[in-house]
Amino acid sequence: SLTIGIVGLPNVGKSTLFNALTKNDVLAANYPFATIEPNVGVVGVPDSRLAVLAGIFGSQRVLPATVDFVDIAGIVRGASEGEGLGNKFLANIRESDAICQVIRAFKDENVVHVDGKVSPKDDIETINTELILADLQSIEKAEPRLTKESRLQKEKVAVLAAVVEAKKILEAGDTLFSKGITKGTELGDLLHELHLLTTKPFLYVFNVDEDELTDDAFKAEQSALVAPAEAIFLNAKLEQDLSELDDEEALELLQSVGQDEPGLATLGRVGFATLGLQTYLTAGPKETRAWTIKQGATAPEAAGVIHTDFQRGFIKAEVISFADLVDCGSVAEARAKGKARMEGKDYVMQDGDVVEFRFNV
Ligand code: GDP
C-alpha cells in the first residue's frame, strides 16, 4: 500500500504527533534507536457516509479507509551529503509515495529550535534544500549516462530533455512538485527512472499553538508559503491528549479550542487525497466499509482490492450512488426506481459508489 513519509527538523513535534498517530506512548526518548528505524502509523480517513450506510444496512461495524504514515527521522542540514543518517534518511523518503513535512510554528522557550528561532519559512527552506540537493545529485549521476544513451536510443532523448528542464527548476531552488511536475504528468513520467524525491506530492503539517488553530489570517499566510501543497494546522500535544480520551471527552476538548475534528482526522483525509486515492463503499449487515482504490480505477480493479479472485472472476458490478441510496432508503427501493446500475469491466469507479460485485469463482 502507499505510504506517506513524515519528515521535519528536530524538536518540531514529530514524535509527539507520531505518538498520537499510533495511539501509544512509545516516546522516542525511551527508545534511542526508534528514530532511526522507520515506524508506521495508521490513521483512518473520516467519511461521514459510512455511519449513514451502517444505519441503512444495520451494519455491526464500520471500517474506514486508512493511510499509512512512516516516521522518517534524521533530517539535518547536510543530509543530502549522505553523512551518517543522511543516506538512510534519503532512502526512506525515496520509498515513500508522498512527503509530509512537520513544521514548527508553536512558541515555547523551553523547547530549543535547532536554528535558534521559530521560522516556518526558514525551516521549509532548510528541508526543501536538502531534498533539492539530493535530486541534483541524482541528476548529475544520470546525465552523462543519458547523454550517451540518447545517441542510440531515441526514447532517451525526451528523458534527457526532461532532466535538463528539471535541473533548471532545482537549481533555481524550487521543488519539482511546486512546479506541477509529479507522477502522472508528462515530465514527471519521463523523470520516473531517476527516482527523484521532489516529484513526490508534498503536504505540510504546521504544529501551531492552540490560539493559532482559529487564526485564519495566520493560517492563510502559512498556506501561501507551501501552495500548491496542502497545509494542515494542528497542535501535536493536543492531538496526543485527544488520542488518549474517549470520544465524548475528545469532542468536548476539541470544541473548547474551536475545532470540529481532530487534526489527525484532517491529516488522514488530506493525506489520502494527496496520494491520489479514492474510495468506494460496500455495505451489509456485517459491515460497512470504505475500500481504497486509485483515482480512475475500473470496476474489476476495484473488485481486486477485496480479493484477487473477485477481479479474476469479475462479471459485473451493481452500483448505486450514495446519494441515490440515501434518497431511496434501501437497495430494494433503489432497484425498483432504476437507480441500481449494472456496470461492466470498463466502468470507471466514481467517488461514493456503493457496490456489490458479481463474480465467478
Ligand atoms: P521531534 O524531535 O520533532 O520528534 O519533536 P518532539 O515530538 O520530541 O517534540 C520536541 C519537544 O517539543 C517536546 O518537548 C514536546 O513536548 C514539545 N512539543 C511538541 N509539540 C508541541 C506543541 O504543539 N506545543 C508545545 N509547546 N510543545 C510541543
Name the descriptors:
single chain; alpha/beta; six-stranded mixed beta sheet; three-stranded mixed beta sheet; flat; Beta-grasp_dom_sf; magnesium
Average of pLDDT: 90
Topology-level CATH name of the domain at 296-359: Ubiquitin-like (UB roll)
Rg estimate, integer Å: 23 Å
Question: At the first level of CATH, what is the class of the domain at 296-359?
Answer: Alpha Beta
Bound compounds, each kind once, are:
guanosine-5'-diphosphate
Major sheet, described briefly?
6 strands, mixed
Helix content: 40-55%
Proportion of residues in β-strands: 15-25%
What is the SS-derived class? alpha/beta
Description:
The chain is an alpha/beta fold and 361 residues long. It has a domain at 296-359: Beta-grasp domain (Ubiquitin-like (UB roll), Roll). The chain is built from 14 helices and twelve strands. It has helices at residues 14-22, 48-57, 85-95, 120-152, 155-171, 186-190, 216-226, 236-243, 247-256, 263-274, 299-306, 308-312, 322-328, 331-336, and strands at 3-7, 39-44, 61-63, 66-71, 98-104, 202-207, 230-234, 277-283, 287-294, 314-321, 341-343, 353-359. The strands form three sheets. The chain has a six-stranded mixed sheet, sandwiched between helices. Strand 6, helix 7 (216-226) and strand 7 form a beta-alpha-beta unit. Helix 1 runs parallel beside helix 8. Bound molecules: guanosine-5'-diphosphate. Guanosine-5'-diphosphate binds at residues 8, 10-16, 28, 106, 108, 111, 207, 235-237. It comes from Streptomyces erythrochromogenes.
